[in-house]
Structures are given as C-alpha cells and as structure tokens.
Amino acid sequence: MSPLRWSEVDTLFLDAGGTLISMDFPRIARELGVLGAPCEWQALARAEAAVRPLVSRLIAGGGSTEGRDTFAYVVDQVLLRALERELPACRSLADQLIPRIRVPGRSLELWCRVLPGVPQALARLRDSGLRLVVVSNADGTVEEGLTRVGLATHLDLVIDSSVVGFEKPDPRIFHTALERAGCDPTRTLHVGDVYAADVIGARAAGLPAVLLDPHGDWGEVDCEVARDVPEVAERILAARVRTARNQERETLR
Predict the structure, then answer these.
(1) What pLDDT, on the 0 to 100 scale, is given for residue 40?
(2) What pTM value is reported for the model?
(3) Would you call 148 exposed, middle or buried from its count of C-beta atoms within 10 A (0-12, 13-18, 19+)?
C-alpha cells in the first residue's frame, strides 16, 4: 500500500466508540459507588483506553466487538485496572454492574459522551471540503446516538454494522461505505481505536488507516498513530495548506 499522503485525503472514515464518543464514565462511576466500589470516572476512562490492545487480540482471534462476552471482558479488565482489586472480585462486581449500565440493543444509552475537541475538528474538516463518514461496529443505534449528541450534522453518512450486515474487520463494511459515499479509495483515510478492527479491516479494503492512541498504550505498530481526531484533523489541514503554498510557489516561478 502506498504511503499515506495527508494532503490528498478528501474523505475521512471514522469509527464511533472510542473515536468520536466514549462511554458515560461518570455514570459508570456513580453506579460503582452504589455498589460499594467508589472510583473516579477519569480512572475508568484511562483504564478503558489501556485495555484496547487486549480487545484487539480478541477481535484478531475471531471475536466480535459487539458480543456480550467481549463487553464483559472489557468491564472486567477496566475494573481490574481502575480499582486495583483481584480479578475474581472484579468479575463479581462486573456481573452486578453490567445490567445497570448496558441495555441490549441500545448502546447509545451508554456510548453518549462526545470526546474533547471532536465537534470543532469535524466542523473544520467539513468546512474544508472533506466528506466525513462513520464506519462503526454497532447495534443499529449509532446514527441515532450521534444525532442525539449533535455530531450527525457534521457527517455525510453513517454505516452501522448491524444495519449493513458486515462487521469490522470484514472489508465488506468498508466497501459498502465506499460505494454509498461515492468516494475514491485512494483518497480515503480510516480512523479508529482498535487495531484488529480498524487498521486490519481498512487495509483489507485497500484503505490506509490511523490508529488512535491517546496514552501510548499500543507500543510500536505498523501504521500511522495519532492521539485523537483533533490531531488527525490538524495533520490533514496543515498538509493541505503546505501543499497549496508549494503549488503557489511553483506557479510563480
């Protein structure tokens, strides 16, 4: 695959959870308090980011990001890190917590907090002419959820795995997005937070990808890495400005 040229990107594919929005960690912290396990919500958010490489291994082994077992595993591992308790105690607590925070088929009730700087970054990208398409493994409610939190107005299209019938890393979900958006794959970049789903899936469809790693949890990976969507936006827009200036200089020679 050719190296990524930031200035040539005119369509951005975006994961939803962990990329545009996060779980409602303050709510989870409140529920833990009710269950007798007080915890700062910031510790939960940090722990969730840290377990993404573990989730990636599950996906690489054939697991589903939307499966109940995957969610239970994530909660176990988050509690293990945030509460610093033994795994059996965390699993017991997770069994009590999950019914209080997760409504099957209604992930938008939990994944509902817009990540910092995302609305502004999307607005800047859209104003500069980029097409913005969400490509998300979800339960059929991601578009409604993004509408609720005010992000849908920045988007051209939302592709939900439960609606189209293909889940990342299956390249068919990306092919569906490319077809429906009518975009050029050589000028399309995918951004997501789970290597096995987002990077491997995008590459299988012929697309470059950027892995979000806000805290350096992934170590060395064979792809572009950024802290967050605002950083991706800044790289694209800055590269466009540099290219335009270089073209202007060439014209004046």
Answers:
(1) 97
(2) 0.93
(3) middle
